[in-house]
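Predict structure. Input: Tetraacyldisaccharide 4'-kinase, 318 residues.
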Amino acid sequence: MRAPAFWSRPPGLLSVLLSPLGAIYAAATARRVARVGVRVGVPVICVGNLTAGGTGKTPTVIALAERLSARGVAAHVVTRGHGGRLEGPARVDPAIQEAGDVGDEPLLLAAFTPTWVARDRAAGARAAVAAGARAVLLDDGFQNPALVKDLSIVVVDAGAGFGNGRVLPAGPLREPVAAGLARADMTLTIGDGRVDLPESPTRLHGRLEPLATGMDWQGLPVFAFAGIGRPGKFFDTLRDLGADIRGTEALADHQPLTPALLRRLGDRAARLSAQPVTTEKDAVRLPPALRGRVMTVPVRLRLDDWAPLDAALDRLGL
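Output follows.
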């Protein structure tokens, strides 16, 4: 879906009219998260958010997996597999699976650490532990009660914040901010911007930085397309790299790259005499024949200070 514009503006008539539905949604979420989950014998680290759409959870999970690997800890990701048809538990294998099978984010995550898709998160975590996981990274499971979480990190896009502060469908929130932060152990704001975090737990701050690949983007004519939570962030990254952006197309988050859409995007790039460029997450949805023709800009999360997170991992024995 594409986020409605009124979600990012101060509350107006439409958000006020939808607020009763938001109250029902918030109450249902509160009842769901009150359920008691199960333990699977290893620490469970949850990376989630309070809003619909992307906030930087996937780069955060990748950064955590790399941090744990450097500590000698085998961490497996368990995720729902949004956009995929497999119910799981199934271990993601990019060599034989496509985004239509497991979703785009699991395919990307599987390049860094063992990743499982599972509609039943507890079953997915048990499968991961049986396969040797010493820690489970629960991707986008903050509002899912299936597992007891030993460390919960709420990721916030500093540029978007919490939008108009209303709960779905009146705004972008999955639950009220105060209720969500009361269950979180840490908040991680990503990017520039000032976000009000009342009663916030331990705070982390970071930014997404392009990975140094040796590619010289300065002056390169590009046509950029992206189907992520905030495509504008990707376009801004290309501008910061010095690329000559001749055209952009913002797609819906996780939008399928159909043959018709790909032909249209390719035609636009050709008319603009520009190199097509997209995100890592979008690239895994491309057909294999096109992956060599579309460039990507990999980004990684850089924290200002790892010490609070390292201390939390120490407390978990990781």
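The first strand starts at residue 44 and ends at 48.
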